[in-house]
Recover the amino acids of this structure.
């Protein structure tokens, strides 16, 4: 179980880093994305929203949780993160540039972003809508959201990724939604960890 937890944490870190690194390639059009961090579900001091396309600037959230950041004008979803003053991740969201004016970072968006850890696998808004409907009907996903609602106000995602209940719920989501068993998950996480370690050595 400890190995699974370590690999899960490594995979989460890899996919966040990988996505941001990929996003930084090329010169594309940008749009302004606006939304709310649900601070009743998401905790942390000095919260800000991070987007690779925001020129590395920290976008502090308003008193009401509101924010505005630059994102890539693209058909594929991108990942935004809410971080605290210790640079730890407190919430995540997959964002479409064509639907960028009403973004919510909360327990539900975080569960979705964790489950689809590499947003490049989703090609467009139609696929995003299809997967969102499938996921919303899964009991394992609802249980994962409930767990995050109880814990995101208290702990970072990095801390939660080491929690056995988190790992169990994550695995249940994969089995129910993607029909992936523990062996396949472990193999995937092992490969992701190897890629993470390789990226650090370059």
């Amino acid at each position: 179980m400890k190995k699974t937890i370590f690999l899960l944490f490594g995979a989460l870190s890899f996919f966040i880093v990988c996505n941001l690194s990929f996003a930084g390639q090329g010169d594309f059009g940008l749009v302004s994305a606006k939304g709310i961090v649900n601070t009743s579900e998401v905790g942390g001091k000095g919260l800000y929203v991070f987007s690779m396309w925001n020129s590395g600037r920290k976008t502090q959230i308003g008193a009401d949780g509101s924010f505005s950041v630059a994102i890539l004008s693209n058909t594929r979803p991108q990942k935004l993160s809410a971080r605290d003053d210790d640079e730890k991740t407190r919430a995540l969201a997959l964002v479409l540039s064509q639907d960028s004016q009403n973004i919510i970072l909360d327990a539900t968006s975080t569960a979705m972003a964790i489950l689809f850890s590499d947003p490049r696998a989703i090609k467009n808004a139609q696929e995003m809508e299809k997967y969102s409907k499938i996921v919303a009907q899964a009991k394992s996903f609802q249980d994962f959201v409930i767990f995050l609602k109880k814990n995101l106000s208290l702990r970072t995602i990095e801390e939660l990724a080491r929690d056995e209940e988190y790992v169990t719920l994550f695995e249940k989501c994969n089995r129910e939604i993607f029909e992936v068993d523990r062996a396949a998950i472990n193999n995937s996480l092992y490969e992701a960890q190897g890629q993470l370690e390789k990226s650090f050595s370059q």
Confidence is low (pLDDT under 50) at residues 2-7, 13-27, 196-202.
